[in-house]
């Protein structure tokens, strides 16, 4: 099975009544799912991951306007030890290990995009503030030399 090109994060705005939020990306193991409400981890037991339906279900719906984020954070480890004598070289095992690599690469792409956006914001902030600093410096110099 090939891994589709996808963004491994989705954000919802809660309406106060909905308790189920769909997972819109591949998730083979719920250990790799990070759930946050307003950028904080909810208490243990406040939600359940329903892998059959592909959704996170909260026991109590989040408040109206809360930001619910579901993200995949795959750990780049390899637990399968393939052997030629014990039937472990099955396609399912290979597919899972290879999918895990692709998932990790997709997540790294997302991190790179977020980092680039932050760098762009920083450059823009410095550009505008440096311009303001230059304007203030020019006014100050004008006042000093006119005195």
Q: Into how many domains do the coordinates divide?
A: 1
Summarize the main sheet: 3 strands, antiparallel
| Proportion of helical residues | 25-40%
Number of discrete helical segments: 1
Instruction: Specify the structural class.
Output: alpha+beta
Unreliable runs, pLDDT <50, ≥5 residues?
Answer: none
Distance between the termini: 78 Å
Strand percentage lies at 15-25%
In angstroms, what is the radius of gyration?
24 Å
Mean pLDDT: 82
Give a verbal description of the structure.
The chain contains one helix and six strands; from the N terminus they run ββββββα. It is of the alpha+beta class. The protein has one domain. A three-stranded antiparallel beta sheet has the order 1-6-3, with no helix packed on it. The mean pLDDT is 82.
Key terms:
147 residues; alpha+beta; three-stranded antiparallel sheet; 1 helix; 6 strands; 38% helix; elongated
Describe the secondary-structure layout.
Layout: E1 9-13, E2 20-22, E3 33-37, E4 47-50, E5 55-58, E6 67-72, H1 91-146
Antiparallel strand pairs: 1-6, 2-5, 3-6, 4-5
In short:
With 147 residues, the protein is α+β, with helices and mostly antiparallel strands.
